[in-house]
Write a structure and sequence with these properties.
By secondary structure, the protein is mainly β. It has one helix and six strands, in the order αββββββ.
């Protein structure tokens, strides 16, 4: 499981996610640690710790190093274990070696992303 650990990495990711968030005016700035798991068939389960930086009740935007593509299904689970939501990748943007991902929740709305 990869983790975002340094402030420098988080700042670089913020610029990348901020650029993607411009396409989703309803998304607000948040800081929610989550566990990202792609929902694909395969031999093993891969997951990554991410920082959701922009969110709405319908979408979440974060930086990821996983090989995610448009229309991939994923699960986001709060790092504290209190909530899970499944979603579909609706946008991917690359900027200066970073990748921002936007996910739309499958159920239409998810209240697990709250402002700090």
């Amino acid at each position: 499981m990869a983790k975002l650990g340094t402030t420098k990495l988080e700042r670089a990711a913020s610029e990348c996610t901020e650029r993607l968030a411009r396409f989703f005016p309803g998304a607000e700035s948040v800081e929610v640690r989550a566990l990202l798991t792609p929902l694909r068939g395969g031999a093993g389960t891969v997951c990554e710790s991410v920082l959701v930086e922009f969110a709405s009740v319908q979408k979440a935007i974060f930086q990821s190093t996983l090989p995610l593509e448009f229309n991939d299904r994923v699960q986001l689970a709060q790092a504290n274990g209190n909530g899970k939501a499944q979603g579909t990748v609706i946008a991917v943007q690359y900027h200066e070696g970073q990748k921002a991902v936007a996910v739309q929740f499958v159920s239409g709305q998810s209240a697990w992303v709250n402002k700090p």
